[in-house]
Design brief:
heterodimer, A: 403 residues, mainly alpha, 17 helices, 3 strands, 70% helix, B: 675 residues, alpha+beta, seven-stranded mixed β-sheet, 40% helix
Chain lengths: 403, 675
């Protein structure tokens, strides 16, 4: 009897997904090691102070949090979703206040706690998924009502705008497809969605056109670096046509600096070739400092993997993510109710957006944005949230039977 | 499979999501394929461009040897004491951080002070004023690097006991432009310095010995004109790769054998790649292609004879004399020695000559090879041509001729050619051919010259190839002057013939031409193409490679003079050195080596026909019985009281002494074995 119960308990977890997760965590540790241990400052620290070890610590913490979440059925959790949502909104507002939120690298995204830099936007995404799942899991008929539709949009827009203000365009952007997909799966009428999509599409095109072509006084207020990143992506000259040669030279210099990171990442990825150059070689782009040390272990960790393990390595990483995503979809399909389905779909879309934008940024099919690669990039908040999100998915899976 | 399970279910939205997911992953896959497989080579080359610097490594220059294999030009290792900037990266950073921290503190204090003054916190805009500008930060970098480098240099200086200084500007330029290369702080160390460095400082940070090779001429000024000068030039030659990031110093020959045979001596430069990090510091290096060393050149020159000739010039005439000596093998045309004064030290050029020194050389025209590059009026040594022409035309050498005295100077003769009066250094009296040669009688030779006719004289002179180059030292030879047959029929007076017969006027020669001519007289009438380079051989004989031989005794022409005429001339020239009346007695070395000679004096006039100096000559060959060597000496001097016999014959004497010593010492292979 106990045996059956135990066996059932094990069968309640989606083992394939867990395997893929374990694989990702291994890859993450290995390559954070490779990316950071080229820095003599790092190698001189004690091993437990080194970044790769701290990443392992975050993994352990994250797994702990996920396990904790799985002890309870997700329904009680969902009841707290709005509380979590508003708490995150508060944190997002708090981060924007000068003395509470800390600036690093020009963006005010963190609250410096004694042991940890707390990044509210990461948790806000999770809270949004839960709250959104809760909101859109109401009966499909209700979703046909326009005010429900707009309320849902508002639910999405509030954190979106707050995160955008930090500024953190990347994190804000991933909220949109997540919300959109959740709305779709929930059963929002097609026409609403189509109109929404076309509206968003028009706005996006206008914005891009404005950035690329508009003269100075027509420009939408935007952070300098964000505009520069877009210009770099589209390969547009920084200087306007009527600039003086000196201005043009200065603009070209600035352009070179801005495109440097993306260019180096691309060279790293490309020069990896089919088989890669081997793990942790002394003459990799990172080791020689061409891939900036600050970016190599978080946003551009994929370049490190691609250079060192080549196309083969890239495929392995993509496959691991694919397994996680498709098992997630399977969980969504097998969920026992709309709430669970929406949670699973939301997490899948969130993860996929991260993966697509980050890897796309490394191979230049997407402009550079500051989005981490889930579980592989170094960063406490990102790891914690990814693992908690996956814990939620396991939770949905575990409780798919309802008995 | 996972995906298909979902698609089978009747859940269109999930299906849509699954499709979008697949599409997205596929886009990523395609993108990765494009970047990592299709374009991999392109990115790899980008990588190499930014990570690798190519360095051109000059090849080992070929040696120049004398005919017996003694080294006249070689390469010697040179050690520089150099700073290796990649080793100093850490100290640079430490110093910079310290300086930056200090500056930041100072700035913070300034801000605090300002705030105290204003009684409030500064606004963002006001704070910006205190921010470090990029030039300031750059200045910190420059300053701290210079301090670190200077302190390293000071340490080394103390240990070596040598005063060493660091030029901040040069150092910064090297840091900016050539960070991956070593920066020399002490060039060309001597053995003592090297030893002291190895004992006291080996393994020190950032400083080490750097090995270069430098061209060395072990005998200093010896054969300087033949060897030639080098010039610093590290550009790519021929079909070498032209794009290098850095080029190590290299040399190219400009004049002499170094110049003419530069392509042979130069070898082929090699290439080294240095991998740099994003700061431009050297990470690792790799030799892509080894340099191919140049080939050795073996000259026909004999070191002993060259040394004797140059020493003789120096001893008898001093370093500033305008003079030349040519020693030739009459049986083959090999140049055994060619000396020119004033001379220079090619080591100065190889190691970078100072402006003052070069100016001195230019003032003296020391670079000119006076044996081949300058025209001189031959004076009496041209009389042999006249004499041979006359003998061929039927002159009776024993027929006496009376030389009339000069009414103004009864000790000397005079010849009147249609009111052109030609003075004679010889006294009046009876002269036959032999005596005329011995005493170098102008009157006699003018007489026989006029009798023979200028046509015959010029025709014979053309057979000697006066007025034409010998192509021995391209671009460093003049052709001399000889009137053509056409010219002597046009506006030509008997006075001109008279002058021609005594080797003045329209005729001018180089000592090299005279050596070739006298060799022909000595060897029975063959004009050879003179030869300077005997062969080209590979530097490392073990490595294989071909030797290129240049044939000796290449015949240019035959003067077509009968053996009898030559014998008469030989006898007369023997009398020049051995008879009481001979003017060339100072050349005699002894009966083992009997010398046939001819002295000569020619007037040098400026463009206004004023006398500014004399060319004193002594042209000779030996031994009389079986001629082997020709020695021609020229001294150009403003001194009027000299003569060929007084100034030049002693120099030839010294050369013949050496020849005799070599012969009696049984020195092997003085001459290339030519049958």
């Amino acid at each position: 009897m106990t045996n059956d119960a135990l066996n059932e308990k094990y069968a309640r977890l989606d083992r394939l997904q867990l395997l893929a997760l374990a694989g990702l965590m291994l890859v993450g540790t290995a390559f954070v090691f490779s990316a950071t241990m080229v820095n003599p400052v790092e190698t001189e620290k004690f091993w437990f102070a080194q970044l790769w070890f701290r990443q392992v610590m975050w993994y352990v913490l994250g797994i702990g949090a996920a396990v904790a979440l799985c002890l309870v059925d997700y329904h009680p959790l969902a009841r707290w979703s709005y509380v979590a949502y508003w708490a995150m909104i508060l944190c997002l507002v708090a981060v924007l206040i000068p003395h509470i939120g800390q600036t690093h690298g020009g963006a005010r995204r963190w609250i410096d706690l004694p042991f940890y830099q707390f990044q509210p936007s990461e948790f806000a995404k999770l809270a949004f998924i839960l709250a959104g799942a809760n909101f859109w899991s109401r009966p499909p008929d209700e979703l046909k009502r326009p005010e429900v539709f707009w309320l849902g949009i508002g639910l999405m827009l509030l954190p979106f705008l707050l995160i955008l203000k930090e500024p953190d365009l990347g994190s804000a952007l991933v909220l949109l497809p997540t919300g959109l997909v959740m709305m779709l799966v929930a059963g929002t009428p097609r026409r609403f969605l189509l109109r929404l999509l076309s509206g968003v599409g028009i706005v996006a095109v206008l914005m891009v056109a404005d950035i690329l072509f508009a003269p100075v006084h027509w420009r939408i207020p935007m952070q300098d670096y964000q505009r520069q990143r877009l210009l770099v992506y589209f390969g547009k000259d920084f200087a306007t046509a009527d600039a003086t040669p000196a201005e043009k030279a200065a603009a070209r210099e600035l352009q070179r600096k801005c495109s440097y990171q993306g260019q180096q990442a691309l060279i790293s990825v490309g020069s990896g070739g089919f088989w890669g150059k081997g793990w942790h070689q002394p003459d990799s782009q990172t080791a020689l400092g061409f891939l900036p040390a600050g970016a190599a272990h978080n946003d551009f960790i994929f370049s490190v993997i691609a250079e060192e393990e080549g196309f083969v390595g890239s495929i392995v990483v993509l496959t691991l993510y694919a397994v996680v995503l498709f098992t997630g979809l399977r969980i969504a399909g097998q969920a026992r109710d709309r709430l669970g389905k929406l949670v699973a779909v939301g997490v899948v879309t969130l993860l996929f957006s991260h993966v697509f934008i980050n890897i796309g940024m490394n191979i230049r099919i997407v402009p550079v944005t500051g989005i981490p690669l889930p579980l592989l990039s170094y960063g406490g908040s990102s790891v914690l949230c990814s693992l908690i999100a996956l814990g939620l998915m396991q939770n949905v899976y575990m409780n798919r039977r309802g008995y | 499979m996972l995906v298909f399970d979902e698609l089978k279910k009747n859940d269109p939205q999930l299906r849509l999501v699954a499709v979008v997911l697949v599409a997205g992953l596929f886009i990523l896959l395609a993108g990765l394929w494009w970047v990592q497989v299709v374009s991999a080579r392109e990115y790899q080359s980008h990588l190499e461009t930014q990570q690798f610097r190519t360095i051109r490594i000059p090849a080992l220059r070929g040696k120049i040897l004398d005919r017996e294999g003694r080294v006249l030009a070689e390469n010697r290792p040179r050690y520089n004491l150099s700073l290796y900037l990649d080793d100093l990266r850490k100290p640079f950073k430490v110093a910079f951080d310290a300086e930056y921290a200090q500056a930041t503190n100072a700035r913070a204090q300034m801000i605090v002070g300002q705030e105290k003054k204003l009684g409030r916190a500064l606004t963002k805009v006001e704070r910006k004023q205190f921010a470090f500008k990029t030039e300031q930060l750059k200045g910190f970098g420059v300053q701290t690097r210079e301090q670190v480098a200077a302190s390293v240099v000071a340490q080394v200086s103390a240990k070596l006991g040598e005063p060493l200084a660091l030029d901040p500007k040069e150092f910064e330029t090297a840091y900016e432009k050539a960070r991956a290369l070593p920066y020399p702080i002490l060039k060309n160390m001597n053995a003592g310095q090297i030893a002291r460095f190895q004992e006291n400082y080996a393994g020190g940070q950032g400083v080490d010995l750097e090995l270069q090779t430098v061209r060395n001429y072990p005998f200093g000024t010896l054969a300087a004109h033949l060897l030639g000068e080098l010039r610093q030039d590290n550009s790519s030659i021929g079909d070498e790769y032209s794009f290098f990031n850095y080029r190590l110093p290299d040399f190219v020959g400009v004049t002499g054998v170094e110049g003419i045979y530069d392509s042979v001596l130069h070898g082929r430069a090699g290439q080294e790649s240095v991998q740099v990090n994003n700061f431009g510091y050297r990470q690792s290096e790799d030799v892509d292609s080894q340099p191919a060393p140049g080939e050795n050149i073996v000259l026909t020159v004999d070191l002993d004879l060259q040394r004797a000739a140059e020493a003789a010039l120096l001893n008898h005439q001093g370093p500033d004399a305008n003079a030349a000596v040519v020693v030739m093998d009459v049986l083959s045309g090999d140049v055994l020695a060619m000396a020119s004064s004033p001379t220079f030290d090619p080591n100065d050029f190889a190691q970078g000559i100072s402006r003052e020194k070069y100016q001195q050389l230019q003032d003296k025209s020391a670079e000119k090879n006076r044996a081949s590059q300058e025209n001189y009026a031959p004076g009496s040594i041209f009389k042999v041509v006249v004499g041979l022409a006359a003998l061929e035309a039927g002159l009776n050498p024993d027929k006496p001729y009376t030389v009339e005295p000069n009414p103004l100077d009864s000790a000397h003769g005079l010849y009147d050619v249609n009111h052109v009066k030609v003075k004679d250094t010889a006294p009046p009296g009876q002269y036959n051919f032999k005596r005329a040669v011995e005493r170098s009688s102008n009157s006699y030779f003018i007489q026989i010259g006029l009798q023979t006719g200028v046509n015959r004289v010029v025709a014979l002179a053309e057979k000697f190839h006066f007025g034409e180059r010998a192509n021995l030292l391209p671009r460093q030879e003049t052709s001399g002057d000889l009137p053509t047959l056409e010219q002597v029929h046009h506006n030509w007076r008997e006075g001109d013939t008279a002058h021609l017969c005594i080797g003045q006027g329209a005729v001018a020669v180089t000592p090299l031409q005279m050596a070739v001519a006298y060799s022909a007289i000595a060897n029975g009438g063959t004009i050879f193409w003179p030869r300077l380079v005997s062969r080209i051989e590979p530097q490392d004989t073990a490595a294989g490679g071909m030797t290129t031989n240049f044939p000796a005794a290449v015949v240019r022409d035959h003067i077509g003079v009968s053996a009898r005429s030559l014998r008469i001339l030989h006898n007369a020239m023997l009398g020049e050195t051995e008879d009481v009346e001979g003017t060339g007695k100072a050349a005699v070395v002894g009966p083992q080596l009997r010398i046939c000679g001819k002295t000569g004096t020619a007037q040098v006039q400026d463009s206004a026909n004023r006398l500014i100096g004399h060319n004193y000559w002594f042209a000779s060959f030996a031994p009389f019985e079986n001629p082997k060597y020709a020695v021609v000496v020229l001294v150009q001097s403003p001194d009027e009281s000299g003569s060929g016999g007084a100034l030049c014959a002693p120099i030839a004497h010294d050369v013949y002494e050496t020849i005799l010593q070599k012969q009696t010492a049984g020195a092997p292979k003085i001459l290339a074995a030519i049958n």
